[in-house]
Specification:
This protein has 219 residues and is mostly helical. Helix content is 68%, strand content 0%. The protein has ten helices and no strands. The relative contact order is 0.14.
């Protein structure tokens, strides 16, 4: 358990690296005072160009994926559907830490991004239980954006779909009796994503949110 706790602390610190803020600072820009004020890839791309936005996206995904996958590999958890509950919860705790570090960055007054990119990396790293559901959530996000043109709303819909994909995947693998930790953890993650997008949702339902992601910030 001590090694899991060390992994969780390291994952939080890696997740707290504000890549969007640092990339913008390197260009002499405080991203918090431009666009939406969000440090995520969407706002970076809008303010500083798509190239830096894509780089920020990759870095934010990576800071979720790398520590989560490393912890799973070290503890021989990767590739298993039948982890004991204590091991499953420990790995899920590590999975959540980069997302929390990104959302509540201690270096920026505990304010950060909205956790979608980092969350995607973290979830995808929990192989195989959450990897396929993560791909399914990305597909849901893409379809929702195509249909609604609302990035924030689509991020919430995709996050909400994740626990459903987890349940379906565990059922298909014949491991439904092991599904509870994974479904609960992804459900909590979905709630966090929706909470961080509450402003986007309020504007969407009020009809004041611009379509096409022009006024939406979901990284």
């Amino acid at each position: 358990m001590i090694t899991w706790l060390i992994a969780a602390g390291g994952a939080f610190m890696i997740g707290s690296i504000p890549f969007g803020y640092l990339l913008a600072r390197a260009r002499g820009v405080d991203i918090r005072t431009h666009g939406s004020g969000n440090i995520g890839a969407t706002n970076v791309g809008r303010v500083l160009g798509k190239r830096l936005g894509r780089l920020c996206l990759l870095l934010d995904v990576g800071k979720g994926l790398v520590p989560t996958l490393a912890a799973g590999l070290y503890h021989d958890a990767v590739g298993r559907f039948d982890l004991p509950p204590d091991q499953a919860w420990a790995w899920l705790g590590v999975m959540a830490c980069p997302v929390l570090g990104h959302m509540f960055c201690p270096w920026l007054g505990f304010r950060g991004g909205k956790g979608v990119a980092t969350g995607l990396g973290s979830v995808a790293a929990v192989f195989p239980v959450l990897t396929v559901p993560a791909v399914g959530a990305v597909v849901v996000w893409a379809l929702s954006v195509r249909l609604t043109h609302y990035v924030g709303l689509s991020s919430c819909v995709a996050a909400a779909s994740l626990p459903l994909f987890v349940g379906a995947g565990m059922m298909a693998a014949g491991r439904l009796d092991h599904a509870a930790p994974w479904a609960i953890a992804t459900g909590v993650l979905a709630v966090l994503v929706v909470f961080k997008h509450r402003g986007n949702l309020a504007r969407t339902f009020a009809g004041s949110e611009r379509r096409g992601g022009e006024n939406e910030h979901s990284s």
